[in-house]
């Protein structure tokens, strides 16, 4: 079964990178992490009549969506627009967690947040038109604790020693 998930362009570029999932359609096995996520999202039975609408499977790859091919069955009537949007939001959260972890992990190699953010967008082949390294930097900045009580109580010497260890 092949289906398309609505995602933002930079999310699509991220997941199509060879380091993540590769080219479309993305093949998904039931026992993979992504297969578990997809099965969890589509496992609940729809309770409203509008959700029971039959959706025909499509084999045409939509360039504005991230396309998946499943190796396990899912009822076509469960592939509602709401569930596909929900899966797209989950993929966006996964992207954000990965970007934050990547950039924070590369801060030991690159002396600045900007350098690590540039490396992230370059390595994952995310075009500047869809998502910039500045957006990655802002994402990481929003994820940081503004007032770390433990760190703020340390002296300047202790902070520099701690930064050498971490």
Q: What is the topology?
A:
Elements: E1 2-6, H1 9-16, E2 26-28, H2 33-42, E3 65-70, H3 81-106, H4 113-123, H5 133-143, H6 149-152, H7 156-165
Parallel strand pairs: 2-3
Antiparallel strand pairs: 1-3
Helix pairs in contact: 3-4, 3-5, 4-5
Please give a structural write-up:
By secondary structure, the protein is mainly alpha-helical. It has one domain (about 1-165). The protein has 7 helices and 3 strands. It has helices at about 10-15, 35-40, 80-105, 115-125, 135-145, 150, 155-165; strands at about 1-5, 25-30, 65-70. A 3-stranded mixed β-sheet has the order 1-3-2. Helix 2 (about 35-40) links the parallel strand 2 and strand 3 (about 65-70). The longest helix is centred in the middle third of the chain and has 26 residues, at about 80-105. It is elongated and about 50 Å long. Residues about 45-55 have low confidence and may be disordered.
How many domains, as an integer? 1
Quote the distance from N terminus to C terminus: 46 Å
Apparent shape: elongated
Helix coverage percent of residues? Answer: 40-55%
The number of distinct β-strands equals: 3
Task: Give the ordered list of helices and strands.
Answer: EHEHEHHHHH
Number of helices: 7
Quick structural overview:
With 166 residues, the chain is mainly alpha-helical.
